[in-house]
Design goal:
The chain has 240 residues and is an alpha/beta fold. It is built from five helices and nine strands. Zinc ion is lined by residues 10, 12, 176, 180, 186.
Length: 240
């Protein structure tokens, strides 16, 4: 069996801190994403409302996610196919989440998420479909001012065994890496967007269980956001 017919493990580097897992979501949701929700809940309980909101928004990502593509050495026709795959993958996640998150295509200098393409992507000596490094965090300036931050770099391969990596496989790789940006963890299941990429049978959309896990995470963050708004609203002197 040639390599082209074998699944490629999409090994991804985790940019955020690895924190203890303690949840039924542990196989589907990044522990660091779950930790942001716990921090949001803790900060809210302690009255640190701006911090609570910022932690919740590392999950909800209410601002447009600024994203850019570097097609690398691809010729113009191939570059257009890569761009098409990336836009399609981002749109898939937008639709899956009811447009609660939106990607805004921009230039690399102002992007939070950078997608680069290269003939080969390797990690630890192994050929992989893609890899990503990402970080989400909060900035706390004090005086009731806090905000969230997001950054990610995604690498996607364009060739395998001297042949073009199929566009649907490139698209799944992008779905997978953007899934990490949104908070999902790797899955061992072939047929899951967050599972290994099989170039001969790429996956075109998240499985119901993957979507449910992500929606549950977002619901938990949204509850903190709503409670934070109520808390701000009920403060003495708040404008009603
Ligand atoms: Zn991964």
């Amino acid at each position: 069996m040639g390599l082209a017919t074998r699944p490629l493990l999409c090994l991804c580097l985790l940019g955020a801190l690895t924190l203890p897992a303690a949840s039924e979501w542990r196989t589907k949701i990044q522990r660091s994403a779950l930790e942001h929700v716990k921090s949001a809940q803790r900060d809210l309980a302690e009255g640190l409302v701006p911090r609570a909101l910022a932690h919740a928004r590392t999950i909800l990502l209410p601002r447009d996610i600024r994203i850019a593509i570097d097609a690398g050495p691809a010729d113009p026709i191939a570059a257009e196919a890569l761009r098409r795959a990336a836009i399609s993958a981002a749109d898939q996640w937008e639709r899956a989440l009811g447009r609660e998150v939106r990607f805004f295509w921009t230039d690399p200098s102002s992007a939070e998420v950078r997608v680069t393409f290269a003939p080969s992507v390797r990690l630890g000596g192994a050929e992989v479909a893609g890899k990503a490094v990402w970080r989400r965090g909060i900035l706390d300036w004090g005086h009731g001012q806090a905000d969230y931050t997001l950054s990610a770099t995604i690498h996607v391969r364009t060739e395998l065994d001297g042949r073009a990596f199929p566009e649907p496989a490139i698209r799944q790789t992008l779905l997978h890496e953007l899934g990490h940006v949104l908070g999902l963890d790797d899955s061992p299941v072939l047929g899951h967007v967050m599972g290994p990429v099989d170039p001969s049978r790429p996956v075109s959309e998240p499985a119901l269980s993957e979507l449910e896990s992500l929606l549950a995470l977002r619901d938990a963050a949204r509850q903190v956001e709503a409670a934070s708004f109520l808390s701000l609203h009920d403060r003495p002197g708040a404008v009603r």
